[in-house]
Amino acid sequence: MNKYKFFIYLSFTVFLTACGGASDSEVSNEASADLSKIFKWKMVTTWPANFPIFQEGAERFADDVRTMSNGRLDIHVYAGGELVPALQVFDAVSNGVVEMGHGSPYYWAGKVPEAQFFSSVPFGMTAKGMNAWLYNAGGLELWNEIYKPFNLMAFPMGNTGVQMGGWFNKEIKSMGDIKGLRMRIPGLGGKVFKKAGGNPVLMAASEVYTALERGTIDATEWVGPFHDMRLGLDRAAKFYYYPGWHEPGTVFELMINDSKWSLLPKDLQKMVEMAAAATSERIYAQMEYHNQQALTELRKKQNVQILEFPKEVLLNFKRLTKETLDEEAADSSTFKRVYDAYENFRSNYASWDKLSEESYQTSLRLK
Ligand code: CA
To answer: 240 in a domain, yes or no?
Structure first.
């Protein structure tokens, strides 16, 4: 064996040992195929083009993956309506028309009612409780089990933080003021609002400002100070209520077509998973940052009153939330299963949260 041949032999032996002794052809095929193959994927989102933080987050995620993979996973991001309408993202990813989607699970409540627990439910957990449940306490596994029949899998990819209760054209002093009130409030929050005597209305984001300004609706919830001001809601109604009892921390999802995912090499899968986790954290941090800035701006405005919902109203919303969730659970065993898992974690977490965060926050207000 000459020097050159020995070097080849040695390199090959080391390589085989590192790979756990697979046959020659397997090793060379797999290694070369993985590194040369470029995956050109499409992601559709539920957000309007250039929508701050949300759409930007999806695009930054794609950039991060492209950079980390040295271009091997090249994801082109389309805003809602550019390739498929916003509310067809679930079907497009499920059917494999595209590989990925970014939105929030509660948009699919009509098809998968229990998906709402992976988004946000009224009086449910905030971002930190949701993260604890999803990443550590079986929440994400349960979510993926629920998505499996649709050939989908998901990772959390963003959180709005606690939302605001919404904009009202009159003061809310008691439950009597909710009666007959026309409010844009979707999902479970809307169902609770209806039970409370209100009239929940569904409408696209683009119509909300005009509807409130012209009095077609009396109230609307949207997100928080930053996004609400972008929509001009501070110019359409006077009373801005907190807290956002109906959406205490809405989780966003990166949904992926399961068949396409299984074709992705392990290293690219890991990059997607890590980039999704990083994007999740960054979106949440941006929400907290921009909302506090926007709130400072709002407080300077003479025409806006920022008020807390009266205790009576919150207590009633809370009671009606339990009623609503119990009714949904009675209709569906899958809903009940996810509800039970969520509640089991939430109640345990609540005792730690009370003793840690809540107690600390209370200590800050001591005088
Ligand atoms: Ca909202």
So the answer is: no
